[in-house]
Amino acid sequence: MNYLFKINANSLLCGITLFLIIIMVFSFEFINPFYPLLFSIGISTIIICIIFPSIMLGFVTFYIPMEAFILAFIPTDINKDIIGLGPELILISLLFSLLLNFFKNKKKLHLNFIDHLLIILISWSLVTSILSEVNIFHMVNGFRVLFRFVLVYVACRLIWDPFKSWRKLVNTLYFFIFFEVILGIVQSIGKRFSPTTWNLFGENPSNLAHTFFGVQGTLIRYDQYGTFLAIAGLVMFSNYINISRKNNKYLLAFVLTVIGIILSTSRQALVFIILGALILFLLSNIKHKKFKFKYYILTVGFFGSFLYIALSQFNGGNIIETTGRNPFELLTSLFEKDTFALEKTTNFRLYYLFYISPLLIKEHFWGMGLGTFGSVFSRETYLPIYQNMGLYDNFLSYIADVNWVSIIGQIGIFGTLLFLFFFISVSRKSLKYLKRSSDDEEISVVLSLAIAISIGFVVLGFLGPNYEIRTTSFYLWFLLGIANRFMIDSKKFKD
Q1: Between residues 100 and 389, which one has the greater pLDDT?
Q2: What is the pLDDT of residues 102-161, one digit of tens each?
Q3: For residues 14 and 40, which has the higher predicted lDDT (pLDDT)?
């Protein structure tokens, strides 16, 4: 508690924050009897966040995967958008607290090339939006969707003990792997008897109500469930091959994530974890030179073939009826001829990529601004533009599923190249340091992950709106922030 009284600026910050919260709450239907409770919880959380920022960062890390599940049980007359702002308000307060402490101790903020590139990217996005005269509501919400968890990146750059924060993240994800996979298995069984709130909620399609596969755990959709598990699984796999090769707890957690991804029937998650695991393995082989790549391929091939043969029997009804979604049918469909057709009705992702992208580059080279192309909340405003491109009906709902196309539409080809170059730079710098670093295995885990996750997200940008989804983008920016912090803190690394 002494921390609160030593820094008078924090008391002032508390007062300002509480005033803003009061104004915000009264502006959102403060007539529901449930709001005073939310108001009290919000005030308490913000104050605790300012006093104990490290603890609250851990809280947000734990809360993000649980949010959709919690909101599913909130009364329908409650404005859930207010609750959804909670993690961002916590991160903003946390960031203010860290900055106050940072400048109070007269520390010097060291920015490297990656930081400067991120600043240029955000500045470009805002300038493009302003010059395009985007509606302020659309611009603010567009910024939130694409860049809101840059807050956690900055927090990781300023946090007092990045190693402690990193270990908390690993422990949290380790817990969630077991919790989510067990819940997923129970949900798959529960759906067979009685589809209800706890096993089918949020945006999971109704056609998943009576199928064994297609579970979502505590996430809002099956694909978010799979991608979240893929991120957590890669964290475990990196720990296993870089630190605890004799400790099988991380290997067990990794195997469980694969099971969870199969249950989810998310193709993008399966692609992500396979690609990420291969990258981590190659990086570990460069670092330690103890693994044989051919053994890894043989192992994956053997178990993959075994699982495919076993699960392919499900479709025939010999073991489990899967008249809805079968994960291996979805995976093998990647190799079918129609999958690579450019027709809009056959493969909308390739259609957007090869037909809509060139139109955007030609007609909106510098971008339309944040919160415009592909954004749900501005769809009606830009409907004439969509119609001129031949996009009608359901195809309007799928624009963001090719995240790179919506990014091109919003911040232009130059902004998109900056965005891509940012992830390439993170990978290049991390690889450069990884080759030079000493035997600090924990740093090797983080830097290897930064490379695998960065490359993986570049691929995921073609498969879904993963830069905009809370449960994936939060952990992306967390990992990038910690990795860059480790690189800057090391005296052996020169930018």
Answers
A1: 389
A2: 777 666 778 889 999 999 999 999 999 999 888 888 898 888 888 888 888 988 888 878
A3: 40
User: In which domain, by residue range, is 95 found?
Assistant: 2-109
Are 494 and 467 in the same domain?
yes
Residue at a domain's end among 59, 89, 109? 109
Q: Would you say residue 308 lies in a domain?
A: no
Residue 344 sits in the same domain as residue 457: yes
Confidence of residue 301 (pLDDT cuts 50, 70, 90): low
Distances (CA, A) of 293 to 23, 278, 298: 59, 9, 9
Which among 157, 149, 166 is positioned nearest to 58, based on CA atoms?
166
pLDDT of 297 above 90: no
Please give the Cα distance from 269 to 275 (Å, whole number).
Answer: 10
Cβ contact 293:474 at 8 Å:
no
Rounded distance between C-alpha atoms, residue 363 and residue 131, angstroms? 16
More confident residue, 36 or 483: 483
- Domain edge (last residue) among 59, 86, 109: 109
Q: Which residue has the tokens 């290897």?
A: 448
The token pair at 169 is 């993240």
Q: Which of 70, 96, 122, 80 is nearest to 17 (CA)?
A: 96
- Give all strands (DSSP E) within 296-356, no chain letters: none
Q: Assess whether 118 and 132 both reside in one domain.
A: yes
> What total of structural domains would you count in the chain?
2
**Matching residue, tokens 């308490």:** 44
162: its two tokens: 């990045």
Q: How many residues does the chain have?
A: 495
Spatial contact of 234 and 452, defined as CB atoms under 8 Å apart: yes
Residue 313 lies in a domain: no
